[in-house]
Structure formats: C-alpha cells, structure tokens
# Entry
Amino acid sequence: MGDVPWLPVAVLHQRDWRQPLLQLLQAELGHSPRFAPQDAVIWADAQVPAPHWPDHPGDAPQRLQFWHLGLQAHAWMAMQVCQPTPISRAALRVCEWRLGCPLPPALRDDWLHLGVQDWAEGLLAAAWEGQAPGRDWAAIGPVQVVFPGVMDIVAMADPQDAATLRAGIADLVAFGDDLGNGKLWCFSRTDGAVWYLDHDSAPLLTRVFDDVGDDLEALALMALCTAQATAQGRDDGDAQAEAWLSARWGPAMVRKWMY
# Structure
C-alpha cells in the first residue's frame, strides 16, 4: 500500500477516524490504480499519436489521459515505457502541510495518479524526504527555499520594483525546474496561476498560465510534437510545438519560455 515513515499530528487530525482502520489505511497509504504499470511494449513509429489538444480541457479525467499520453510520448523518445509512480494521499497531505497551502487541483491530480517527474521539463518532488528546512530544494517549496539566490537578484532591483517582487515571490511556490537550469515554474498560493521565474532575463517573474493544468498540457503537447516528428524522420518537432503553443497562448509566452 505504500510506505510513509511518519505523519505530523496536524496531518493526522485531518483524517476521519470513524472509518474502519483497514479502509483508512488503504485510502491514505494506497496508490491510485488508474494507470496500471504497462507491459514493456514500445510504440512502433506508425503508432505514435499525432499532436492534438484534449477535446474537453476542463474535464479532469480527460486531462489526466492527455498528460499520460504526453508522458508516454516522452518516454518513447528514450526508448522506454512510461511507468506512473503516483504518491499516496498521506504523502500529499504532508507536502501541503509543509507548504501551508493546498496544491492546485491539477497538480494534486498529477501526483495522485501519475507522479512522473521527468517531462520535457522536470517537476519537483512532492514526497518529502525529511531534509532540514532550507535544504529541501529538490522538493516542491517556497521559491526562497528552492532558489535561495533569488533574493540577491531582487536586492539589485529598483526599491519600488524590489518591494513588488518580494511580495510576488512570497506568494509563489516552486513546483517545476526548467531543465535543471534554475528557472522555475511556480504556482500562486492566491489564485493557482502559473508564473515563470527567469533569473537570466527581465522580467524576473512572468505570469504564463491560468493554472498548472495548462502547463502540463503544454508539456504533453511538446512531447507529442517531438515524438511524431522523430517517428516520421523529421527534425522540426520543436518548431511544430512552438507553433501550437503560440496559437494557443501567444508568441510572447513562447519566447519567454523557450528563449
């Protein structure tokens, strides 16, 4: 059913202890069976799906299926099979307890049913390994913890801009790392919107998506574009993905993200 080394008292208090113990343990420590481990079968080139958006993006089950398809395409590029590794509800509750806020619904769904960190971009871990505060930069966490140097950048800004940046950063939780280069995907504690933290070029903070689900859809679409181009012997997968993303969210967002 999974293994959780400890649960804070504050998290235990959230449970309904009137449930039968076995049912409670299964609900809290079990893992979602929605995407069962697949047989080790690699797609043939002709089986690689064409790029597309989900028909009903607001539908949570369809979104999950689309993200899973994108993960399959990403794994196919490495001649591997996608193996979801969902975390337990108990582990998710500990994550939210550490943050002091709930994860956005789309990110919760992703971790509860898929749990794969290796996309076209990397997701920070939701399961906490017990590092001391200030040393858990590989886990979902406040921007100042994941990227301590951000406040040095803020200190170099104009005083009025610095005050605005400090307020913005305090509201953000980092959940993804852009290719390990220190640029971060963050969600707002206030409204769940996704912000891109770019320490290389101004602006430092850019709002890019309305919610985390949009970000995961973009990653899935990128994987599908790249996989289909590779399957067809083309090298324009990235360009195709940029065209799809630009049509949906505008070229300015794509330039900020990609360049």
